Amino acid sequence: MSHVFAAPSFPAAPLRSVAAAAAITALLCGATPASAARQPAKPAKGSSTAAATTATAATAAGPTVELAKEVTLAAGKSTLMRLPSPAARIAVGDAKVADVILLNPSEVYMLGKAPGSTNLIIWNRANQASVIDITVGLDTAGLRAQFSELFPNERDIRITVSGNSLILSGTVADAVRASQVVQVASAYLQRSARNSSSGNTGAAQDAASQAAQAIGGGAPSAASGAAAGAAWQQAMDPSAGQSSGNSAGRVVNMLSVAAPQQVMLEVKIAEVSKTLVDQLGAAVGLNGTRGSWTYTFLSSLLSGNGNKIDAFNNSSGKFVTLDAQKNDGLVKVLAEPTVMAISGQEASFLAGGKLFIPVAQSSGSGTSTVTLEEKEYGIAVRFTPTVLENGRINLKVSPEVSELNKDGVSVSASGSSTTQVLPAFTTRRASTTVQLYDGQSFAIGGLIKNNVTSSIKAFPGLGEIPILGALFRSSDFQNDRTELVFIVTPHLAQPLPVNHKLPTDDYVEPSRVDFFLKGKMEGKPPAPPDTAPAASPATPVTPATPAGDGL
């Protein structure tokens, strides 16, 4: 929808009073300044007849003059354009995008209101039309100032406006700085959207009112645009028209990191577990006969380990059995996995295996099905590094060591005598987030455990007799001690040199003679080549002729 505004042909001084009077008269008659602006302007009293004829003949058809000219504005910003020839009338395509006011026949005021594009047509007094494209975008001056203040070292950030969206491009130092730049741009975009939707208190309406007041009468002239008239009406009655505003646009992140940093993580998992078990049990059997009575005393308090000492009297049937055991166990676990990842990306490592555990699931029809659930075990590391400024490294790391338990878990189904042993796992895991510098080592987790278990089973009374009471009781003592620590060390990795040595470079396959006859698992590496320079061939020497032997 276009809006056409006519310009009077009288001098600029009477224009102010006549325009103000026309606007006030239109408001008193119930018409808006915009509708009044659409009416042809009447010449002022005392103006020349030729000027009035020119203003009346503005509707006559005339040639169109296309000007390859474009005006770019920021939302909320204004500009003043001087015309090469006096204008008779103007028309703007979309008053919601830009507000255009013809201040006088030689000056046009433009105000960007909302992101978008429109055009302006200007007719001169010869009825020739000029077309000017107007593009309104977001105002990025404030955002550039914030970037300069918050990120003084980032000088390669470029901001491009596309409609109501911001496109960020250029190069930043690291991924953290790129995320911060996007967050600042998003906050600025949302704030700009709130400002554009703040009704009559918005920057666009205030600027339009100030432009109208700059004419001199406090109201837009009869030759101003419909949007300027609407702004004046809102100033007179704020409830007459509130701006709906624009929703917040998008921030398109096209930033690139200057040099993506590689981070290598070394994890050490050290564990020492010691178990001490002492057991002592006894079984005593005494038989006796007195008259028609037979007396039997039987005490069996064995530990059940099979290490027995028996004493049996065949004639009397008396016996004594001693059962004792001493168990010492030592387990040492040392795992040193190494993982590398790009800053900001997650990496994982697993050295172990997978086990499938049957899991019963009941369906709605009353039947049950068995599915296999996957379970990983072994040495695993999962971490996400982020390189910060000044060489600091933010680590989100989760190391884990798990192994199969030799005992397992015995499970028997109800109503069945069958017992199944399901696998059980012994797991040591830590998960945390730390910040370190290159080469620093920190213990992110540790465990010191000392379990002491003792039990005594005895025959009442007899088990409390000194010395001999050991025959009538069973003693169990178990002490478990465990020490566990997780240590992480990050490094800012560099590329490996050319021809880096590998662990398999020194391996030489043995010959059949070495393998079968000599029992060698590895052959002898070949002798290195002699790098000494070869001797030059001897030069024959002609013997000297003795004196007096000459011819």
TrEMBL record:
Residues 532-551 have a biased composition (Low complexity). Residues 1-36 form the signal peptide. GO terms for biological process: protein secretion. Keywords: Signal. Residues 68-136 form the Pilus formation protein N-terminal domain. InterPro entries: Bact_Secretion_Sys_Channel (IPR050810), GspD/PilQ (IPR001775), T2SS-T3SS_pil_N (IPR032789), T2SS/T3SS_dom (IPR004846). One of its GO terms (cellular component) is type II protein secretion system complex. Residues 519-551 are annotated as: Disordered. Residues 325-492 form the Type II/III secretion system secretin-like domain. The keyword Transmembrane does not apply. Belongs to the bacterial secretin family. This is Type II and III secretion system protein family protein. It comes from Duganella guangzhouensis.
